[in-house]
Automatic annotation (TrEMBL):
GO terms for cellular component: periplasmic space. Pfam families: Molybdopterin, Molydop_binding. This is Formate dehydrogenase-N subunit alpha. NCBIfam families: formate-DH-alph (TIGR01553). Keywords: 4Fe-4S, Iron, Iron-sulfur, Metal-binding, Oxidoreductase, Periplasm, Selenocysteine, Signal. Its cofactor is [4Fe-4S] cluster.
C-alpha cells in the first residue's frame, strides 16, 4: 500500500475495484465505515458480482471481468473533458509537461518498437526528448502535441463513456454515478482512496490495471495525501513481508534486482552500472551490505563481496514457468512451503501432471494438503496414481499461534507476534523459522569437508542464528542482521542512510533498516525484555498525537515499525504544494514550517531539504525524474500507457483496437494448454474468495465449524442463466471447458446479472477457489478450469477471466 489501513478513515471517497474488503479484509472495513460515519465519505464498489462490499456501498456498478482499463480510462477522460484534474499537482508532481521522442507512436493497439516474432518491445522510442546538455525538454503550458499531457489526451480519445459501457457491460447511469463521486476529489481539500486485490492483478494486463489506477490518482492529486493512494489489500497477514524479503524470483531482499546470466550482470561492477536514478543511486550500498550479511568476513572488495556466489537466472522462473519446466522434466525436485498448487495453481490437471515428473516433493504445512497427496487418485484428476513415482516428504508446520516473529501487513507495518501456545503433546510440528534454520545447518554440514570450488558459496555462507542443528534460532540475531550493523564496531545502524558500499556495513534488507534501536551490540544476545524494547516491531504505543499535541491522523508512529524509515504514507511530499504548504488543513500530513518539515508523518524524502532546494519538489524519490509517471518510458514491458486487450479467452472481439490479446504476453505452447473458443464456451467465469474459507482451504476445511458453514463447492450464476439452462437452486451442475470439469452445487442468485456487451447478452458466473479433495469437506478445484497464461509483466495467472459452459449434472 502507499497508505495504510487506519488511513482509510481520512478518505472522502473509497473506490473499491478488484477486491471485496467487507468479506475478505473485514478489519479494513472498520476504517472504511469510520470514514463514512465521521466524514460522510462515499463508498463505491465496481465488481462483476454484487458483493458484500457492494451491499454496504453508496454506489455499485457491475463490470465484466477483464475490462478494468476501459473503465478507468473512461473516468480519466471524464476528468480531463470536465476540467476536474488537480491541475497544479499534475503540472508539478507528474511528468505531464515532459516532451516525448519524435520516434514514439501508437497505432491500432501497438506501441512503437514492437517485435512481433519475439512478442516483445524495444522501448528506446518511448524516451524523453532531451536538450544538448541531457536535460528533459518540458512544456509547462501543456500545449505541445508531443508532451505527455497531450499524448495522454489523444490516447484516451477512444475511451468515451458510451464505448466504455458497451465493453464493460456497465449501465451508463451506473457508470456516470461512479464518475461523479470518484472524480470529485481533484481539489486538494478532498481525497479518494483506491483499494484493490487479486481481482485487479490476476489478468494478462494485471500490472497495467494497477498502473491505470495510479494514473487516475495522479490526475486527481490523490497520491501522497491522507485518505488517498493506491492500496493493495494483501490476501494474507505477511504477503507484504514475504515480498519484501524476495519471495519472488526476480528480486533480492529490499527489491534489489536479482542478477541475470547476461553481460549486464557479469560482475558487481557491471551490476552496479545498471543502477537507475532517484534514490536508487544508493543501490550499490544496499547490495554490498546485503552480500556482507550473507558471506560475512569472506565478502571483501577484492572478491566483489562474493557477488559471484549469487545464482544467476537465465530466463523466467515465475510460478507458471516453474510448472511448465516440471512438465517438461527439467525440474526434478520441489520444496512446497505453505503453498498448495494443486488447489491454488492454474490448470490443475496440468500441474498434477507436472508434479508427476518430479523425483521428489517436500510439502511443509499444517495438514496434509492436496499437493502433498497429489499422487492419490481423486475425482476430477486425469493422471493415475499407478503412473506417478514421485517420492513425497511431509514436514508438519506450526500454526500461527504456535510460533513467534514478525509479519508485515498491507500498510508495510512490521508487527511482532508473540507465541501463544505450544503444539499439543505428541505433535512434532516445527516453526517455519526452525525448519529453515535447521535445513540450512544440515546443508552446510553436508558440504563442510568438500574441496570443490563449487561448494565454497555454501561453506562460506554466514549462518550463526542458533547453537547448532536441532536448536531453535535466536530471533534477535536475525532481527539485528535485517536492520543492519557496522561491521567494524559491531553496532546496529540507525537507518539505511548509514549503509556503505565499501564493506563496512552489513544489512539483510535495507528497506527495514531502522527497525532496531541504533548502537545495539550485535555480538551479544540481549535479555528478552530488552530485545522487545529495542526491536521496534514490538512497539505498542497507541497514542496518536501531532507535533502540536493535538489528535493525529492515524499514523501511530510509535506502534510497530513501517518501512521505509517508519513512513506511514508514501510520497507524502505530495500532500503539500511546491512551497511546502498543505493543500488544505484537513489533508495536512507534513508541511514546511519555515525551518524544517513538520507534521504527522516521517517525510518520504530528504527531510532537511527545503521546498525550493534542488530536488525539494520531487515527491517520487525512487523515480529517475522524481515525479509521477503518467507516461512510463521504462518499467513496463507492454507499453508506456496502459491499453485495453481482451483476456486470452473472451466472449467478444476487442472494441478499441485490432489486437485481441496483450501483445507482450508470453505464450506457453506445450501440451495441456488448450484455449477455449467463444463459439463453444460462451460464458465468462471468475474465481473469488469468501469469508468462511481461507485460501486453498487447508486451514478452514480442516475445522469443523467453518466446514459446516460452507460445506460444498458451489457455482454462483444468475437467475437468467439458470432459467436458460433449466437449472434450479441447489442442484448439482458441471462447469466445464477444454481443460477440465468442475462438479458443484448451483447457487442461483441475483448477485450476477447478464451483461449487455455491444448488443450481445453475456453471462458471467463465479466460483470460490477454496475447495479440494482433502479435509473435512471436499470439492472440485475451481482451477481445474483456469489456464496457464499470465500478466505480461509478472506472469501472475489469469484466474479472473476465462470461458466455460454450465450443464446439469
Amino acid at each position: 500500500m502507499t497508505n495504510h489501513w487506519v488511513d482509510f478513515k481520512n478518505a472522502d471517497v473509497i473506490f473499491i475495484i478488484g477486491g471485496n474488503p467487507a468479506e475478505n479484509h473485514p478489519i479494513s472495513w472498520k476504517w472504511i465505515e469510520e470514514a463514512q460515519r465521521t466524514r460522510g465519505a462515499k463508498i463505491v464498489t465496481v465488481d462483476p458480482r454484487f458483493t458484500r462490499s457492494a451491499a454496504r456501498s453508496d454506489v455499485y456498478a457491475p463490470m465484466r471481468s477483464g475490462t478494468d482499463i476501459p473503465f478507468i480510462f473512461g473516468l480519466m477522460k471524464y476528468i480531463i473533458d470536465n476540467g476536474l484534474e488537480h491541475r497544479d499537482y499534475v503540472l508539478k508532481y507528474t511528468n505531464s509537461s515532459f516532451i516525448i521522442n519524435d520516434e514514439y507512436e501508437f497505432n491500432d493497439g501497438l506501441f512503437s518498437g514492437y517485435d512481433a516474432a519475439g512478442r516483445k518491445y524495444a522501448n528506446a522510442s518511448w524516451a524523453y526528448k532531451k536538450d544538448e546538455e541531457g536535460n528533459v525538454i518540458k512544456d509547462e503550458t501543456l500545449q505541445d502535441p508531443r508532451c505527455v499531457w497531450q499524448l495522454l489526451k489523444k490516447h484516451l480519445e477512444r475511451y468515451d463513456v458510451d464505448t466504455v459501457c458497451s465493453v464493460t457491460g456497465t449501465p451508463k447511469e451506473d457508470y456516470l454515478a461512479v464518475a461523479e463521486i470518484v472524480c470529485s476529489t481533484g481539489s486538494g481539500d478532498r481525497s479518494g482512496n483506491i483499494n484493490y486485490a487479486m481481482g485487479t492483478t490476476q489478468h494478462t494486463v494485471g500490472s497495467q490495471n494497477v498502473r491505470s489506477y495510479a494514473m487516475l490518482q495522479l490526475l486527481l492529486g490523490n497520491m501522497g495525501l491522507p485518505g488517498g493512494g493506491v492500496n493493495a489489500l494483501r490476501g494474507e497477514a505477511n504477503v507484504q513481508g514475504s515480498t519484501d524479503f524476495a519471495l519472488l524470483f526476480h528480486i533480492l531482499p529490499g527489491y534489489l534486482p536479482a542478477p541475470t546470466g547476461t553481460p549486464l550482470h557479469e560482475n558487481l561492477e557491471a551490476y552496479n552500472k545498471t543502477t537507475p536514478g532517484g534514490y536508487w543511486t544508493n543501490r550499490p550500498k544496499f547490495m554490498a551490505s546485503l552480500l556482507k550479511a550473507w558471506w560475512g568476513d569472506y565478502a571483501t572488495p577484492e572478491n566483489d563481496f562474493s557477488y559471484d556466489f549469487l545464482p544467476k537466472s537465465y530466463g523466467n522462473h515465475s510460478f507458471i514457468s516453474i510448472f511448465e519446466a516440471m512438465y517438461e522434466g527439467t525440474i526434478k525436485g520441489l520444496i512446497c512451503w505453505g503453498q498448495n498448487p494443486m488447489v491454488g495453481g492454474p490448470n490443475s490437471n496440468k500441474e498434477r501432471a507436472a508434479m508427476a515428473n518430479l523425483d521428489w516433493l517436500v510439502s511443509i504445512d499444517l495438514y496434509e494438503t492436496e499437493t502433498a497427496a497429489f499422487w492419490q487418485d481423486n475425482d476430477g484428476s486425469q493422471a493415475k496414481s499407478a503412473d506417478i513415482n514421485t517420492e513425497v516428504f511431509f514436514l508438519p508446520a506450526n500454526a500461527p499461534m504456535e510460533k513467534e516473529g514478525t509479519v508485515s501487513n498491507s500498510g508495510r507495518w512490521m508487527q511482532y507476534r508473540w507465541k501463544a501456545v505450544s503444539p499439543r503433546e505428541g505433535v512434532h510440528s516445527k516453526s517455519d523459522l526452525f525448519i529453515a534454520n535447521d535445513l540450512g545447518l544440515r546443508i552446510k554440514k553436508l558440504y563442510e569437508g568438500s574441496t570443490a570450488a563449487k561448494d565454497i558459496p555454501i561453506q562460506k555462507l554466514t549462518w550463526n542464528y542458533s547453537a547448532g542443528i536441532g536448536e531453535y534460532p535466536n530471533i534477535q540475531r536475525i532481527a539485528k542482521e535485517i536492520n543492519g550493523y557496522n561491521v567494524e564496531t559491531g553496532k546496529t545502524v540507525g537507518l539505511f542512510g548509514e549503509l556503505q558500499a565499501d564493506g563496512t556495513t552489513a544489512c539483510g534488507n535495507w528497506i527495514y533498516s531502522g527497525c532496531y534501536t541504533k548502537d545495539v551490540d550485535v555480538t551479544t544476545d540481549q535479555e528478552n525484555d530488552q530485545f522487545y524494547k529495542d526491536y521496534k516491531a514490538c512497539r505498542r504505543d497507541d497514542t496518536d498525537l501531532g507535533p502540536d499535541g493535538k489528535e493525529g491522523i492515524g499514523s501511530y508512529l510509535n506502534w510497530s515499525y513501517a518501512w521505509p524509515a517508519n513512513r506511514r504514507i508514501l510520497y507524502n511530499r505530495c500532500s503539500a504544494d511546491w512551497n511546502g504548504n498543505s493543500w488544505s488543513k484537513d489533508k495536512a500530513s507534513i508541511w514546511w514550517n519555515g525551518e524544517k518539515w513538520a507534521g504527522y508523518d516521517v517525510p518520504d524524502f530528504v527531510g532537511t531539504r527545503a521546498p525550493q532546494d534542488p530536488g525539494g519538489m520531487n515527491p517520487f524519490i525512487m523515480m529517475n525524474d522524481g515525479v509521477g509517471a503518467l507516461f512510463a518510458p521504462t518499467g513496463m514491458v507492454d507499453g508506456p500507457f496502459p491499453e485495453h486487450y481482451e483476456p486470452l479467452e473472451s466472449p467478444i472481439p476487442n472494441a478499441f483496437n485490432s489486437v485481441e490479446l496483450n501483445p507482450a504476453v508470453h505464450i506457453y505452447d506445450s501440451s495441456m494448454n488448450e484455449v477455449c473458443s467463444r463459439d463453444v464456451y460462451p460464458i465468462v467465469a471468475t474465481t473469488y474468495r469468501m469469508c468462511e474459507h481461507w485460501q486453498s482451504g487447508v486451514m478452514t476445511r480442516n475445522l469443523a465449524w467453518l466446514s459446516e458453514l460452507v460445506p460444498h463447492m458451489f457455482v454462483e450464476l444468475s437467475e437468467e442463466l439458470a432459467a436458460a439452462k433449466q437449472i434450479k437452486n441447489g442442484e448439482q451442475v458441471e462447469v466445464f471447458n477444454e481443460r477440465g470439469v468442475v462438479k458443484a452445487v448451483a447457487m442461483v442468485t441475483k448477485r450476477f446479472k447478464p451483461f449487455n456487451i455491444r448488443g450481445q447478452e453475456v453471462h458471467q458466473i463465479g466460483m470460490p477457489w477454496h475447495f479440494g479433495y482433502k479435509g473435512i469437506v471436499t470439492g472440485h478445484q475451481a482451477n481445474l478450469l483456469t489456464s496457464h497464461i499470465g500478466c505480461a509483466n509478472t506472469r501472475i495467472p489469469e484466474y479472473k477471466a476465462f470461458l466455460c459452459d454450465v450443464r446439469r449434472a
